[in-house]
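[job 4471] stage=fold_predict status=RUNNING
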Amino acid sequence: MQIISTANKAVNPNSDIEDQIQFDFLESDQYLDSKRQGYAAFLVIDADGETKQYTTHVSDLALHIDYHNKNSTEKNHNVYLSQAMFANHSRKKENLASIKLIFIDLDYYNITALKNLNADDIKKRVYNLCDAEKIPRPSITIDSGKGVYIKWILEHHLPRKALKRWDLVQNKLIEKFDHLGADSNAKDASRVLRLVGSVNHKTGNTVTIIDSNISEQNEIETHNFSDFADNVLPYTNAQIQLFRQQKSDREEINAKLGKASKATKKKGYGSVINSENKFTFVKYNQHRYQDLIELVRIRFGDGGCPDGQRDLFAWLTVNYMALAHSHYKKFDFWRESKAVIAEICPKWTQTRLEQAASAVFKRLLMAQAGETVEFNGKQVTPLYTHRTSSLIRDLSITVEEQRQLKAVSYTHLTLPTSDLV
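[job 4471] inference complete, writing structure tokens
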């Protein structure tokens, strides 16, 4: 719903005149809650260019806004207001108490193709982009007197500990709105923006709300931050939690495998002395070949692998079976490997099954004899080992598939560390 607004009041133009809804629309009330404990910050530039900064408790904010809007008109002051609340009188990020909005400053006049447009034209382009990118439309759109502010009001105040993910959202939105002049220098939580109702004395225009999205309850539309972030960022919060858990599991496995490595005689993959470490190594590789069998079932059902994928799946699966049992010479690998291959490649003949098993069986015998092969200048086991990231890439394993697996997961996929917050 479009709202035509002056500085502090908004009227619903779609209702009947006698039934019009009049809002006491102090814009800052939407994110600087006067009932909470905290401070808002003002930055004032007077007609001589002198700058003054100060803070006031949010309970007194309305009085200060009225005062500055009057001075902005009568004394040619440019007035800016913080978008966040602070725990004390210092407007520093580390002192932030809470923030209840996401915002972008669009300096569209810096874009050659847009400099002759007006704020309403930019608003339409913003809405088109939001619809195309499946981003909620802004709660409030403001003509800053020269550019445009777009603000998404959140359902709840975010504490300082949520700023890492909030910063990620800000950065991603800056990228998405870059072609509309998004100011990358106006994205931090301690930022001040021009006060609605004041005058931008660079142009003489008043800072005005040009559109607001109103809910069915006749309130400014607000957004759940977690849902909003999931829409904007490359990974959802649930995925990140999964990555973290898997990373923790991976580190635990690596720690145990590291102990196993120290207890291993230097005979290639020699016999592990410590039985507990041996069990850890065996269990890890068991999970891998069981994951590959499960992946075949997930993708292809009981029919097994189709043509073109049988060789790769068969080879990888029995290779990890061999790694899991390389320390047990009594293990009947020949029989067990053919049974596994028959399960994932049921259309293969007995001869073809034996050919697939034989290639790995030879390498298993070498490993059990303590033999090694050279790889990248190092002596390693004759059996093949892979990074899980390589398995995920080569087999195109999706996140949904990984959730059903034990060892082949995003734990080993390289992710941007900035996304894991």
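[job 4471] summary: Residues 4-232 form a domain with the Alpha-Beta Plaits fold (CATH 3.30.70.1790).
[job 4471] exit 0
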